[in-house]
Amino acid sequence: MTTFLFLARRLACRSARPSPLSRPRPSVVRHCRSKGSLATEPSFAGSQRVRGPHTPGPSIRHASGATTPPTTWIDRFQASVRPYMHLTRIDKPIGTLLLFYPCAWSITMASYAIEAPFIIPLTNISLFGLGALVMRGAGCTINDMWDKNLDKAVERTRTRPLARGDITRRQALGFLAGQLTVGLGVLLQLNWYSILLGASSLSLVTIYPLMKRITYWPQAVLGLAFNWGALLGWSAVAGAVNWGVCLPLYAGGVCWTLVYDSIYAHQDKTDDANVGIRSTALLFGEQTRPILSALSVSTMSLVTYAGFLNTQGAPFYLGVGLGAAQLARVLWKTDFDDRPSCWRGFVGCGWSGFWVWMGSLADYGIVISGVMSH
Q: Where are the beta strands (DSSP E) in the chain?
């Protein structure tokens, strides 16, 4: 009898344990690219969490191997506001910085040349910083209005607000009007020479998106637009452009843009070739590294020459040297067939512009403090 009771208890204990087949299994993750679709995180049955396309969290891998863009701080804002913020790329400040640095070079070099009081470059740096933020966003809006249909065919850009249908072209046009109004407000703080000079650059901003359809050199047109601040910054400080100094500075900036935007274009070269978009990335092909190396040398040589004409001191040339070393590092490390590597190289190019500015700023600081004269 005792043996029978013992066996009965053992059998009851075994039956109380959960079967391996009854244990929860991770759910299958599926994701649909179409607008409004939902994606689910790997979770256990009964506790599956559903994620919308803008809910913060890690990126999701598709069956094709591609991943959705990671979410950013923009996704904390209301749904009605987010498309406009994404349209301006405000979560990617590198574009604003690349537009701002030529302005900062010119403002600081002009202040050095005329030994302007500190408040002059400080005021103009602030105005041009705001202007760069606003006008870079306006440029993105114009670009996306032109490229709505092309962006749908490129993997990296198909989630942009216009391409995805989050907003219409008419809504984007209204938003652009607001951006340009703010930009005009900033421009009107400058002297009349600078107002007219600044307004004349808008045509370059407008036609840039068209260039990728008709020439392999859209990066050159972007360079002409993005480095206008090398002229405008000087006139804002001094009342007129010193063309002898500013033209080589401007030309150096254009070469610099050809370097960083060619690296950027390598991210999309496969899709671009399929849909008919042209770029220097496709034009340079396997010769990209030596060509960009030559353009980098041209960039720093022209900036150095502008500094020489402006009688800059040793700190300026130290900054140029650090900028040159940064460009060399970028070109040495970038894998032009790897998208993340190209993005890192693109961002890394911005540091070269930063070091040039730091050199000119140190030079100005020494002169204005009375330690040295030029």
A: 39-40, 50-51
- Give pLDDT tens digits for 335-361: 999 999 999 999 999 999 999 999 999
Report the pLDDT value the prediction gives residue 371, as an integer from 0 to 100. Answer: 64
Q: Dump pLDDT digits (tens) for 169-205.
A: 999 999 999 999 999 999 999 999 999 999 999 889 8
* Overall number of domains in the chain: 1
Measure the CA–CA gap between 332 and 36, rounded to whole angstroms: 42
Kindly state whether residue 33 falls inside one of the protein's structural domains.
no
Burial of 344 (0-12, 13-18, 19+ CB in 10 A): middle
**How many Å is the Cα radius of gyration of the chain?**
27
Helix 243-265 × helix 229-238 angle, to 10°: 150
Distance in angstroms (rounded) separating the CA atoms of residues 299 and 259: 9
User: β-strand 39-40 against 50-51: which pairing, if any?
Assistant: antiparallel
Helix, strand and coil in the chain, % to nearest 5 = 70, 0, 30
Chain mean position to CA 194: 26
Q: Quote the domain boundaries for residue 111.
A: 76-369
State the alpha helices, DSSP H only, in 33-118. 82-88, 94-114
Kindly indicate the confidence band of residue 75, based on its pLDDT and cuts at 50, 70 and 90. Answer: confident
Domain presence at residue 6: no
Residue position matching structure tokens 């500013």: 246
Query: Which residue type is seen at 253?
Result: G
Mean pLDDT score, 43-60:
34
Contact present, 260 and 278 (Cβ < 8 Å) = no
CA 179, CA 174: separation in Å to the nearest integer? 9
> What number is the average pLDDT over the span 102-109?
98
pLDDT score recorded for residue 254? 98
